[in-house]
Amino acid sequence: MVKPILVTGGTGDLGREVVRRLAAESRPVRIMSRRPRPSGTAHEWARCDLKTGDGLADAVDGVAAIIHCASTLGRGDEQVTRNLVEAARRAGSPHLVYISIVGIDVIRFFYYDEKLASEKVIEESGLPWTVLRATQFHDLVARASAAQRRLPVTFMPSGFRFQPVSTGDVADRLVALASGEPSGRVPDLGGPEVRDARDLAQAYQRSVGRRKPIVSLWLPGKAAKAFRAGGNLTPENATGKGTFEEFLAARV
């Protein structure tokens, strides 16, 4: 019997893409979620709370690999990852593949600090592991403009650039990594283009048929300075294929 691959956060934006690709390859999948199993789901389902550990032992039991997509957005990622690692060790030490973020070692704020700490937990876990860092997803960049749709202007951080990447491209890489040998820290994955924040906001407005002023907002602090210096970018690893405009055409 072929062991399933467990996808934590399997109902999130990235997790759903990972599940689709595993299913397309006829790989058995076990979805971990805090939500109850929806009707009509063909995959194995593990209802689990990574923060409390409730249901975690059953979720990791008998899996070939774990693709760890779940995130608390900085409200406990390190502890969640520690809980997962400890359960995985007790379950036979499957290959753990973790999605992280480009620049977390040079851009310091609470969410990135949690992601960096999670990486360290995995590196020191004794498990076979692989860590992939990716740039910001298309959807996250679009939300920055969408969240301001009721304002008379759109504010964007001055001097910031982004290299937005498709969740599909990230999912493809994660599935390939989970199917291979543990590789430690692998090359980063960036989107195909480095774009100014203002330019991305204009692209979003065009896609939804709006025209309103875009105001550049200077942000203070060390984190903002690191963003302006390009700490979130990986132009040498612009291997993602999906562009921001393609994302907007399909989703917005």
UniProtKB/TrEMBL annotation:
InterPro entries: ComplexI_NDUFA9_subunit (IPR051207), NAD(P)-bd_dom (IPR016040), NAD(P)-bd_dom_sf (IPR036291). Coiled coil: none annotated. Residues 9-178 form the NAD(P)-binding domain. It comes from the Bacteria. PANTHER family: NADH DEHYDROGENASE [UBIQUINONE] 1 ALPHA SUBCOMPLEX SUBUNIT 9, MITOCHONDRIAL, NADH-UBIQUINONE OXIDOREDUCTASE 39 KDA SUBUNIT-RELATED. This is SDR family oxidoreductase. It comes from Amycolatopsis speibonae.
